Amino acid sequence: MLETLILSSAHIFIFITFIMIGLTALFLLCAALTPALCCDWLTHYSRHSNISRTLILHMGDPLTTEESKVSFPYRLYKDIRNTEVESQLVFIRDSLELILNLYHHDNRSSVAWDTDKMDRFLMSMDRQIDGLNTCVSTNKRADGQLRKYYRRLEKRTLYLTGGAPASWELIRKETKLHLDQLELLVASIRAATRRRRSTPTHHQH
Q: Where in the cell is it found (predicted)?
């Protein structure tokens, strides 16, 4: 009986030791990679992103082929890739917020979209924003150029047209383009995270 208790205690000790080693390794990894890279949201983004992109695609007729009067800001997406991960996450969070704000426009009732799919799209965007707010400070904001772009898009596409159905279809098309670009940006963050985790740390003596 005593030997059994001694063996059980030894097994528990070994088990606890392995857990502590694992937790210590995770803590050191997160300390090295910064909280943004250890953000749990990154592991769930694709699922939420796929839901949003599918809903925006299917909540109305096929996407319009009309071109927006406001040029798509590919340069902003290119430039943000050369910044720190935290800045990239802030950019993604702010982009989602600014996209969501477009759909809070008063004249949305003029467009005949599937109400259930549209509501689910908006809820999916909200979840992504909430998840990102656990990774980066709500006090940090992206470069002002991003907000200027969305102000121009809203003014020239919605305000100047009175929120006509064709204008909303342009907003939906532009939304899909932005969500695709944000998905690519997250993929590049994940790739950078994997590289940093696989790179051995060299200690100076």
A: Secreted
Element housing 68 (H / E)? none
Is residue 52 within 8 A of residue 180, CB to CB? The reply is no
Cα 153 from chain centre: 21
Residue type, position 2, single letter:
L
Which tokens sit at 189? 């963050």
**HSE of 23 in the Cβ direction (CA atoms, 13 Å)?**
6
- Taking the mean position of all CA atoms in its chain, how far away is CA 84? 15
Residue type, 42: L
Is the Cα torsion angle 138, 182, 110, 167 positive or negative in sign? Answer: positive
Measure the CA–CA gap between 99 and 47, rounded to whole angstroms: 19
pTM of the complete model: 0.77
- Distance, in Å, from the CA atom of 82 to the CA atom of 64, rounded to the nearest integer, reads 32
Can you spell out the DSSP letters for 33-102? HHHHHT-THHHHHHHHHHHHHHHHHHSSSSPP-PPPSS---HHHHHHHTTS-HHHHHHHHHHHHHHHHHH
Q: Tell me the backbone φ, ψ of residue 192, rounded to 5 degrees.
A: -65, -40
Other residues' Cβ atoms within 10 Å of the Cβ of residue 67: 10
> Quick check: 166 and 97 in contact, CB under 8 A?
no
